[in-house]
Amino acid sequence: MTSYFDENTPDIVLKSLFTKYDTNNSGFLNPHELSLMLTEDLGLSDLQAEVYIKLLDKNADGQCDFDEFKAWLNSGEKLQNAADQSRFYLMRRRYLTSSSLNYQRCCVECTPQFT
Asked: How far is residue 115 from each of residues 13, 47, 56, 76, 78, measured CA to CA in Å?
């Protein structure tokens, strides 16, 4: 199986994955499209996907563009936030009980940064 998280993965492979879920051809992945990609291709649970959707949307515009998507895949994060149960619990707790601004602050505090 190809690892999308390898920094040497060709852009065409990443773009292919992105395009597969950009069903409305907008050039962005909306929350529904992101959820499908995260659960179907990357094996996250619905709850994990919900948290990752917020994590991926760095500019808080409600969608994920290819640059945000690629930066995440090349960040080395490799779904560690989902695997680390204590970190994931903290992110989920803050996300489910706080505003988007507080959630974004939590992501900065709880996760390694990627650009």
From this structure: 19, 24, 11, 11, 14
